[in-house]
Prior knowledge:
Number of helices: 6
CATH class of the domain at 25-105: Mainly Alpha
Largest sheet: 3 strands, antiparallel
Shape: globular
CATH superfamily of the domain at 25-105: Winged helix-like DNA-binding domain superfamily/Winged helix DNA-binding domain
Radius of gyration: 17 Å
Order of helices and strands: HHEHHEEHH
Amino acid sequence: xxxxxxxxxxxxxxxxxxxxxxxxxxxxxxxxxxxxxxxxxxxxxxxxxxxxxxxxxxxxxxxxxxxxxxxxxxxxxxxxxxxxxxxxxxxxxxxxxxxxxxxxxxxxxxxxxxxx
Length: 116
């Protein structure tokens, strides 16, 4: 949790819920993982890298990530148009958090749930 703030169970749950809403959407995590590591990709490169995503859905998800300040869109004034996407610094900070969730999920015990 934050070093500067003390959370109650309710405020912590509310805060995490609000944070997870930034990531809602079937394709947002796939987009983020394509852009992690400082990558800058054109729209067509993202479309090819994410199997099964439609142009319409990719546009929608990228717009939401841009509005939320996670993705930066750069349009170059040329013909044909060139548009590139990259993570903002704040978006790049998601990488360790998502990596921790992935590591946590991989450690799931097999078999029956633990008894409390």
